[in-house]
Amino acid sequence: MPSAAQTTLPAHRARIIALANQKGGVGKTTTTINLATALAACGKRVLIIDNDPQGNASTGLGIPQSNREFGIYDLLFADLTVEEVAVATSVPGLWVVTANVDLSGAEVELVNVERREFRLKDSLEKSSGGFDYILIDCPPALGLLTLNALAAADAVLVPLQCEFYALEGLSHLIRTIERVKRAFNPMLDINGVVLTMFDRRNNLSDMVAADVRGFFGEKVYETVIPRNVRVSEAPSHGKPVLLYDHKSAGAQAYIHLAGEMLKRERKRQLAYG
User: Which of 2, 104, 143, 220 has the CA that lies 20 to 30 A from 69?
Assistant: First the structure.
């Protein structure tokens, strides 16, 4: 059930961003947690939806299994609202809808459910709002859970590891996004591409970055997320890296990424009203 802090959230329309890439290990969950934390630090009210059966976003935020009785599964199947399932994190202004073991069977259960592609969208539309941003951490697959996220989202943020096969996987994801736009969500846009695990000592990182920027242009964020041991260590302590070591290169990168995102959002609002 919602806490007192949650019930006092003001109502307005959140900007919903899905973090998606069908490749695993590219930094989706890490980016979700730390970008959300940085946005909260900027005074935004942020909700993370842990849409991955592995539940890594919930774990990385220090939410124990005992506090995951209700979560994303209940949004999809039990007609509960965000206010009823969201859990406050240790970060002021940041909440999470957790994932638990029930979500592992959701892909199969969704197959025969009415409006199966829109279960998450319908649930979010019933919420009274109160968040500035909702970030959806997607699983490393293009199944029904990811499809629900894309159907509900305003935009997609793509974390992209600086490695050899990055562009091949990205082109597949872009085709999927275009199909989702045609069939389920004509307003879906690509918020941008974030280069992760960037190693300045490695020429391959520079080559991949150049290729991605050459293909996507201004869609690629100027901020790059470096390989950083503190970023890797933080989840084992149940903390975002901004809480674990805010002076680390990884933490500073996510702070800059949040600033760049907010700047883009202001430009978008001015352009579209």
Answer: 143
Q: What gap in Å lies between CA 234 and CA 74, rounded to an integer?
A: 28
Write the pLDDT tens digit of every residue in 1-33. Answer: 334 334 344 446 899 999 999 888 899 999 999
Cα within 13 Å of Cα(45), Cβ side:
15
Tens digit of pLDDT for each residue in 205-239? Answer: 888 888 889 888 999 999 999 999 999 999 999 99
- CA 137 from centroid of its chain's CA atoms: 4
pTM of the model: 0.92
> Do the Cβ atoms of 251 and 34 come closer than 8 Å?
yes
